[in-house]
What we know:
The protein is an alpha/beta fold and 199 residues long. Helices cover 41% and strands 11% of the residues.
Amino acid sequence: MARIDYPESVGSLVEQLKALPGIGPRSAERIAIWLLQHPKSDPAALAGALTTAREEVTSCPTCGFFATASQCAVCDHPNREKTLCVVEQPTDVLPMERSGVFKGRYHCLGGRLSPLDNVTPDDLRLAGLVRRVDEEGLSEVILALGADVEGEATASYISDLLRGKCRISRLAQGLPVGGGLEHADALTLARAFEGRREH
């Protein structure tokens, strides 16, 4: 007896949803059924928003953040401070902006050095970073990169690349608020000690 399954068009929708990061087969199926049956779903609006975003959103040629014009909103803002925060991905800009602690500009590398994944300096937006440091008269470059091996290697490479051009700093790293020592690894504890301040 033949196995009964969804119609082909539903199966195709589930396959497309499964291809998205973080969505497994069961979640893809639930989302597909919700889109098809829920009275508040609007598949046409979803498809339209996705198509419009895909057509309009580009990478800012200056910093690599999301843009819909020639430059992103950060690069286009005339009153940003003369500091540059280097991040791995464009999505790393948003937590910084939402915190309100940084008022300068950003530079998105588009990744981090990873010899095992064949990511070399040529694969990152490093030439643009050096050009910006030379041309924009920056007072400081802040490295806001991951605390893992690849992040450390990338930070070290950039420090060597920019040494003597401007002040280079790294975000302090340490114990999270509410975190206990029993859950901290050796690198986190080392960073916490290095970044300690008078109390």
